[in-house]
């Protein structure tokens, strides 16, 4: 199952890069295209930081942190068991989104963002959506579906 999850993550990263290519080719010259007046538009942004411009121009920090988090997720997936379809899907979403944005940072020095919802200030992209949804799925798993362990018992058990 981890191999399928990695395949899905790669597909998500490729879809993200295709969408960003289309955005750069079609939206960059015009800046903004209103889709639903007062609610949703596509706005071309070169994001050199995190959400809300936090840590702007810290390209290598984001590349290194993303790489570390991706390696940690991969180690947990291959080394420990008790994964569910939900945790596999969450992992694929986080890895795919992280990889999509990391490709931008490595190749361009910034992340291409383009989705803007009027009631939510930052502009974001497909990869950001994947990471947020994957994180939400992990939280849902932990809160509602994870096996509760008695005090003193290890939370993670290695595969044999």
TrEMBL record:
Function: This protein specifically catalyzes the removal of signal peptides from prolipoproteins.
GO molecular function, a single term: aspartic-type endopeptidase activity
EC number of this enzyme: 3.4.23.36
Keyword Mitochondrion: no
Protein name: Lipoprotein signal peptidase
Family stated for the protein in its record: Belongs to the peptidase A8 family.
Subcellular location: Cell membrane
First-listed, main subcellular location of the protein, grouped into a coarse class: membrane
InterPro entries, per the entry: Peptidase_A8 (IPR001872)
Keywords assigned: Aspartyl protease, Cell membrane, Hydrolase, Membrane, Protease, Transmembrane, Transmembrane helix
Catalytic activity: Release of signal peptides from bacterial membrane prolipoproteins. Hydrolyzes -Xaa-Yaa-Zaa-|-(S,diacylglyceryl)Cys-, in which Xaa is hydrophobic (preferably Leu), and Yaa (Ala or Ser) and Zaa (Gly or Ala) have small, neutral side chains
GO biological process, one term: proteolysis
Active-site annotation: 113, 128
Membrane-crossing segments per the record: 60-78, 85-103, 123-146
NCBIfam families named among the record's database cross-references: lspA (TIGR00077)
Keyword Iron: no
Membrane topology: Multi-pass membrane protein
Gene Ontology CC annotations of this record: plasma membrane
Pathway, per record: Protein modification; lipoprotein biosynthesis (signal peptide cleavage)
């Amino acid at each position: 199952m981890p191999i399928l999850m990695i395949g899905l993550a790669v597909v998500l990263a490729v879809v993200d890069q295709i969408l960003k290519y289309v955005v750069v080719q079609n939206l960059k010259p015009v800046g903004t295209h209103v889709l639903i007046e007062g609610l949703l538009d596509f706005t071309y942004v070169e994001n050199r930081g995190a959400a809300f411009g936090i840590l702007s121009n810290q390209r290598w920090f984001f590349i290194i942190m993303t790489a570390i988090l991706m390696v940690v997720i991969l180690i947990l997936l291959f080394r420990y068991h008790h994964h569910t379809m939900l945790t596999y899907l969450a992992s694929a979403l986080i890895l795919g989104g992280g990889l999509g944005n990391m490709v931008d940072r490595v190749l361009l020095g910034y992340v291409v963002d383009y989705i803007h919802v009027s009631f939510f200030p930052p502009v974001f992209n497909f990869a950001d959506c994947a990471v947020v949804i994957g994180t939400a799925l992990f939280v849902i798993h932990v809160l509602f579906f994870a096996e509760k362990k008695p005090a003193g018992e290890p939370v993670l058990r290695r595969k044999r």
